[in-house]
Amino acid sequence: MKNLFFVFGLLTSYTFFAQSIEGVVYDENNNTPVIFASVYTTQETGVITNQEGGFKITIGNLSETDSIIISSLGYKKSVFGLNQLRSSDTIFLKEQKEMLSDVVISANKLSANEIIQRFIDSIGQRHHIQPTQFKVFKRIHQQLNPLAFEIELKRSSEFSRKKRKLFNDKVEKYFANIKNQKTNTYEDILYKAYYNVDSTGVDYKKATKLVNVNRDNSTENIQKNIFKELLSALDTSSTFKVKTVLFPIDDSLSREEFVKAKDSLKKDTLQNQYAKNNTIKKLTQSIANSQLIKDREYYKFTLTDTKVFDDEVVYQISFVPDHRKAIYKGKFFINAEDFGLMRLDYKLIDGEKESGMNMKFLLGIKQEINKSEYQIIYQRKNNGIYYPKYYRAKKNNYVYFDRKITFKENTDDRRNRIKLKLNLHIENNSTTEVEYLFMSADKIDQNKIKFNTEDYVFKEQIDKYNPEIWKEYNIIQATEGIKNYKY
């Protein structure tokens, strides 16, 4: 008989000297990870499981009487005393099959469209928040994949045939090494957000960037490497104006600039700022203005299931396009009692584009987001207001660049100045995934906020995972991709 949880590691028994507990949450029936499950303590500190079902939560401030609670939509809530857990556990959740009969009978009287409308009517009461101080953890994962590359250096008196061949051979070898070679970067950022309806103050506290600087395959970096090779081949200390048809790229590009850029990589900073259109506003005051809500007449809504979360019944409303203007499909999870939104999962349907531009023939530029998916999770506080707990957006961005680029030496001798032309063609796919974990939310008096936009933090650059850096914080657990990072 399978226990509710199974300890997998021959570790010493749990003692109160432990500072954290980490583990993986699985579905007891099919052994699949339970992602985005809530893991919290009786002191209301908590995290959610990552996309592999993993979590890590600090417990240094807990006592023997405190517990850890794990809950997720459709599963029975599990409560563990601290003496039941070890520092590393595998935990199995049981599916919640039984329902609260009286609520379900009432719930079944409403249609999907009626439920959606009641949710919209409740937004002002349930999702509009007062000035609030959030503690936020943000993770950005970018994966780059170069698809195509061509370059042609036009004949020039500055380049002999031999020198031009040497340059072309170097560039060809460079791209052969990176073509279809996916590379990854991860940024972890901690900040306080002072939210009010007009703007949000972002006060940065800590940041790291996990990156292999020798394997950066972004379109921008590819272009920089080409320019660097070109200027090195010229063997000159002169600066150059760089231009592509109508658009200037740089007014004073030189070989020395690339050396300075390399030295400044470890000095990347995040400066405090005020933001008017921000993620918190999007998830609270501006829900009714979201594209899904505004375009709801173009979708077909169906009540596909009722689930239980923390002993409350939740409607599962699925939606699919019912008009050519609709581009998403997904699910709303709405509380059956007060019609607050508890969770929203949706993604771009195949063949659609979320945004972009196509000036391929006019300007040699094309960009489009052709895949996207989103998760939003809310947590209801004791005052009945739903605060954002987690937000995730993952987008695939295709970039096409085919331009003629001109280099002109900055000199008064216009007749004899160095002038070069090259044709550059780059195609690149990038996937960017951004996650926000709202660690805490506390009411504030906006007149008493002490916030300096001149302050900043350095983004610490690392080339391998170091669990010590974030061990004191309840953040999103590192994935296997982060723990085993190479590039």
Structure, described:
- This protein is α+β, with helices and mostly antiparallel strands and 487 residues long.
- Helices cover 16% and strands 44% of the residues.
- It has helices spanning 101-107, 112-126, 161-178, 219-234, 255-263, 279-283, 291-294, 480-483, and strands spanning 5-6, 20-27, 38-41, 46-48, 54-58, 67-71, 78-81, 88-93, 132-153, 183-195, 200-210, 240-244, 247-253, 269-271, 273-275, 299-309, 312-321, 328-335, 341-348, 355-359, 365-380, 386-409, 419-443, 456-458, 460-462.
- The strands form 4 sheets. It has a 15-stranded mixed beta sheet that branches.
- A hairpin with a 2-residue loop joins strand 12 (240-244) and strand 13.
- Helix 3 packs antiparallel against helix 4.
- The two termini are 43 Å apart.
- Residues 1-17 and 262-266 have low confidence and may be disordered.
Distance linking N and C termini: 43 Å
Number of strands: 25
Q: Strand percentage, roughly?
A: 35-45%
Tell me the helix content: 10-25%
Cα-atom radius of gyration = 27 Å
Outline: elongated
